[in-house]
Design goal:
By secondary structure, the chain is an alpha/beta fold. It contains 19 helices and 13 strands.
Length: 484
């Protein structure tokens, strides 16, 4: 069986989280051939893989959301002489339905962009797109300058149309690890190739994009709603074409249904970690890492990418106030700093500005070299799905402090399993509350031990890699056999 994984902005370019999950999934099924459709921003990321690709990953195809109009460029000889291809009445109706957001004629759009003669430039700069935009503007959005509106619509639909121009590879099953542009590719593959389609959401794409747009300075307020609506259309498309839609926890499934996913398509499939990786962890730092570490140090580990969504600045501020109350504390920030170098630099500058000692940015490391001698771990994200870092902490028997986002509450407090509390939940960006939680666990080794034991029991009961592997083995078997 051949399976096409469709991923956006993660594997194999970025480590951790969803990327680790995809890598684990592919390596878990050596009997299958995998192909990867990787959606990335631009050709600047071409081939910049940070994973050693598994032997059963046969091909990586990249889809660029910002790109040259290669259809036109490839026809330089006659580009000036040929007339721009116009849209038929049916094609115009399909484009208009997309822009209006009413009964979008997706199949007609799939067929439209299969036409080798048609370039994205032909559509976006043509009279038909301008007329459709004018219709939508007059019906819904009049009141803003039309020229700005038209260029906004072009910027919204450029990445989508480039995605629709993609020649999708043949596979028996498409597995999209998000909705969004990944979901568009999966839906198009199902419509054109007749494959089966599963969509797995680790976070809710529509909600995450909406949160980003609320904070974004580059999108004028008047246009944010149009962007959000477009992301919702793509999610609805993925849900409607999918044979199965998975989520990591029950509340995420409820939100999928609220966003329009048919309930009978949904399935909860928690993350899984291999317990063997976390047995017999070293209880002292590797040579040269912390040779001068005091014997009574209380080590706090933060396994994360140093990016704004992880809110490392709140972590640093909270640790600063906690360390003022307990000088034994040490903070180890374990994860890459190259995804957002400017933000990482700001975090380092904040440490210097506060004059807080005991903070180490390790960069990318093998967390199994560190977790064994951590006393607790912490995650101060402003958005999450079901963080693998928390499950890994549980596998290592460590208590966790986490903000109340995604499934962090369910992981720390349990979802009716009766095991108890495996850490302390805090509000996002609440520096004092997070500092209090750090100090509380630092001063109470008995509490740390009890919470660590609860977390480990919870991990064994539900979050082992073998359990996740069995779930997806059944999914692939059923879809590959044509079963519902």
């Amino acid at each position: 069986m051949r399976i096409c994984i469709v991923a956006e902005g993660c594997y194999p370019y970025v480590v951790g989280g969803v990327s680790d999950w995809i890598h684990s999934l592919i390596t878990s099924f050596p009997q299958y051939e995998f192909v990867l459709l990787a959606v990335v921003a631009s050709r600047e990321q071409r081939g910049r893989f940070v994973y050693e690709l598994p032997d059963n990953l046969m091909e990586v195809r990249e889809v660029y959301l910002q790109d040259e109009d290669w259809t036109s460029v490839s026809r330089r000889a006659d580009r000036l002489s040929r007339r721009r291809r116009g849209l038929s009445a049916a094609e115009y109706a399909a484009v208009r339905s997309l822009m209006m957001g009413e009964d979008v004629r997706w199949h007609a759009l799939f067929e439209l962009f299969r036409d080798e003669r048609l370039s994205v430039n032909d559509v976006l700069m043509g009279a038909d797109f301008m007329n459709a935009a004018r219709e939508v503007y007059e019906a819904r959005d009049a009141g803003v300058p039309y020229a700005d509106y038209l260029w906004t619509m072009r910027s919204i639909y450029l990445p989508l149309f480039l995605t629709l121009k993609t020649r999708v590879p043949r596979a028996d099953v498409y597995h999209c690890v998000a909705t969004g542009y990944s979901g568009v590719l999966g839906a198009m593959a199902k419509a054109l190739l007749g494959c089966r389609l599963v969509v797995s959401e680790h976070g809710l794409y529509t909600r995450e994009r909406e949160e980003e747009l609320i904070r974004a300075d580059w999108v004028p307020q008047v246009y944010k709603g149009i962007w959000v609506e477009q992301f919702r259309k793509m999610s609805t498309l993925a849900y409607s074409y999918a044979d199965l839609v998975t989520s990591l926890y029950a509340h995420a499934r409820e939100l999928q249904v609220e966003l329009g996913c048919p309930p009978d398509k949904t399935l909860v499939t928690p993350n899984g970690v291999d317990p063997a990786r976390f047995r017999g962890l070293p209880t002292t730092p590797p040579a040269g890492v912390a040779d001068d570490l005091p014997a009574d140090a209380v080590n706090v580990g933060a396994v994360l990418r140093v990016t704004p969504i992880k809110d490392v600045k709140t972590l640093i501020n909270a640790f600063h106030f906690a360390r003022m109350r307990d000088a034994r504390l040490r903070l180890w920030v374990m994860g890459p700093t190259d995804e957002d170098p400017a933000y990482a630099a700001e975090c380092s500058e904040l440490v210097d500005a506060l004059g807080v000692p005991g903070v180490t940015f390790t960069g990318r490391v093998d967390v199994t070299d560190y977790l064994g001698w951590m006393d607790l771990t912490i995650l101060t994200s402003i958005s999450e799905g079901q963080p693998l870092t928390i499950i890994e902490s549980f596998a290592a028997g460590k208590p966790v402090i986490a903000t109340d986002v995604g499934n962090c509450r369910g992981l720390l407090y349990g979802e009716g399993d009766g095991l108890g509390q495996a850490g302390i939940l805090t509000h996002i960006m609440d520096v004092q509350e997070i500092a209090d939680a750090i100090v509380r666990l630092a001063r109470d080794p008995g509490l740390r031990a009890r919470m660590g034991e609860v977390g480990h029991e919870r991990f064994l009961s539900r979050y082992q890699l073998s359990q996740m592997r069995a779930t997806y083995a059944d999914i692939y078997r059923r879809l590959g056999a044509g079963e519902a």
